[in-house]
Design a protein that fits this description.
The chain is mainly α and 469 residues long. Among the domains are: 58 residues; 252 residues, Ras guanine-nucleotide exchange factors catalytic domain (Son of Sevenless (SoS) protein, Chain S, domain 2, Orthogonal Bundle). The protein is 51% helix and 1% strand. A hairpin with a 2-residue loop joins strand 1 and strand 2. The longest helix has 27 residues. The relative contact order is 0.10. InterPro entries: Ras_GEF_dom_sf, RASGEF_cat_dom, RASGEF_cat_dom_sf. GO terms for molecular function: guanyl-nucleotide exchange factor activity.
């Protein structure tokens, strides 16, 4: 197992290939050391002994190189390298192995227990691993990307749809609720949801239907109902590994209420340790499951009967890079830059999520008091800033005088249109009118003569208008 440091890196199991590589490396070192000692022995060893030591070194080196080639063969692989059933089966195998280490002890059962913490850590590691694979796949599908991966990128393939098929089989064929929740959680991360390349109408519909099982409403009622149905279906085989639970809702329920006995009894039914006889397993074989592009998948009755599985798939699953939420956000923004008005709220880190239900006090300090704003019952009117000598107190802006109000009221009263003015007026008034006339474009000679004649007639007598015949 890898270690967990202060940055909350998850503890994940070593792959069988890595374990074999470590053993072969130690064996090669020992064989090489014995060969060097034999060459320096005086008197020298026999030729047969020397040949045997040389052969041992050659065999161990060949074994080490073979393991190295195996690891390199899947170094550039994507999840599309395996069909959904192979991936789902191997995830269920790893979760089942980790479930074996979970100790359901009433006296010492918490999220920090050794078996529980490793089981939860792999859940979060798998979720972030697949989130990275989805983001990286979007980058690989760009036309100008020349990165070589296995298998080569095909235009019609969709990694999100592929992983949803994996989640479907984890739920219905292997009853691995932990792996199922990990796959759906990675698809629900904001770093993944914002990438439109992953989402088609069919993918969105399938995701919405499956994610309903993980709804937190009514204490995860949908998940518990599905789990209870599976337990009731296989309850006759009490010692079977019926299902692999999604441990987070059970831990949250224990932390919130006094339901330790109930939750432990449910987990004990899921865990089941002993291997049943083959006859009892065959009696309860359910109907096969069919997926597009995949043959019939037979659901497994006893999860401990899955065996070690495929070592290459196992190695790939537990040897991928782990990126935290900030690193996933940086990777997602590099693949698709953030829009001008796009804002993303990142979820809490996995290590913090487990204890959110237990944190009731302030985030700044567990002993920090709760802030309650005080409201004064007496309203005080602000009287302005005091002067330097405190001699004058500002009383606000002065109120308008009554005379001004009366004048404004008189102006607001409409007194009708003004009466008509006399056309004939004194020469001074006519000259003032002429001065107010527009001095724009120059009139023609005929217009100027007509204007002079009309002004002369106005001066001589008052114009009475047109005659009525």
């Amino acid at each position: 197992m890898t270690t967990k440091d202060s940055n909350h890196l998850p503890v994940i199991p070593l792959s069988p290939i890595i374990q074999s590589y470590i053993l072969s490396s130690n064996a090669l070192s020992q064989a090489t050391e014995k060969l060097n000692e034999a060459k320096q022995t005086n008197p020298p060893v026999s030729v047969d002994v020397l040949r045997r030591l040389i052969e041992n070194v050659r065999v161990e080196r060949h074994r080490l190189e073979a393991l190295n080639r195996k690891m390199q063969s899947v170094e550039a692989a994507t999840p599309l390298y395996w069909d959904p059933d192979t991936l789902a089966r191997q995830i269920a195998i790893i979760d089942s192995q980790l479930m074996n280490d979970v100790v359901l002890d009433k006296q010492d059962f918490s999220a920090k227990s050794k078996g529980i913490s490793r089981f939860v850590d792999f859940h979060h590691y798998l979720s972030h691993n697949m989130a990275h694979q989805l983001i990286y796949w979007v980058e690989l599908t760009k036309p100008d990307n020349q990165t070589l991966v296995v298998p080569p990128i095909q235009p019609k393939e969709n990694l999100a749809h592929h992983l949803l098929n994996v989640a479907y089989l984890l739920l219905h064929a292997y009853r691995d609720f932990s792996g199922f929740a990990a796959i759906l959680s990675c698809l629900d991360l904001p770093q993944v949801r914002r990438l439109p390349k992953l989402w088609t109408p069919h993918t969105r519909t399938m995701f919405d239907k499956l994610s309903m099982i993980l709804s937190p409403e009514n204490n995860y009622k949908a998940y518990r109902h599905f789990l209870y149905n599976q337990l009731e279906l296989h309850l006759a085989q009490k010692k079977m590994r019926i299902a692999i639970p999604w441990i987070q809702p059970h831990l949250a329920s224990i932390a919130a209420d006094d339901t330790l006995d109930t939750e432990l009894s449910i987990l004990e039914l899921c865990q089941g340790q002993d291997m049943p006889p083959p006859s009892s397993v065959d009696k309860h074989r359910p109907a096969p499951i069919y997926l597009d592009g995949l043959g019939a998948v037979m659901p497994v009755s006893h999860l401990n009967s899955l065996g070690p599985g495929d070592e290459l798939t196992h190695h790939w699953l537990v040897s991928r890079v782990y990126l935290d939420n900030d690193q996933l956000m940086h990777e997602s923004s590099q693949v698709l830059p953030l829009g001008p008005e796009e804002s993303i709220v990142l979820p809490s880190e996995p290590s913090d999520v487990l204890h959110d239900s237990q944190q009731k006090s302030s985030v700044l300090s567990p002993a920090a008091p709760e802030f309650i704003p005080s409201i004064s019952s007496r309203e005080e009117n602000w009287e302005g800033y005091l002067s330097d000598e405190d001699s004058e107190i500002w009383k606000g802006y002065p109120a308008p005088s009554t005379e001004d109000e009366e004048e404004e009221d008189e102006e607001e009263i409409w007194k009708g249109y003004p009466g008509p003015k006399s056309v004939c007026s004194s020469s001074s008034s006519s000259s003032s009118k002429r001065s107010e006339e527009w001095k724009g474009y120059h009139a023609t000679k005929m217009e100027a003569d007509w204007q002079r004649e009309s002004e002369l007639k106005v001066k001589q007598c008052e114009w009475q208008g047109y005659l009525v015949q």
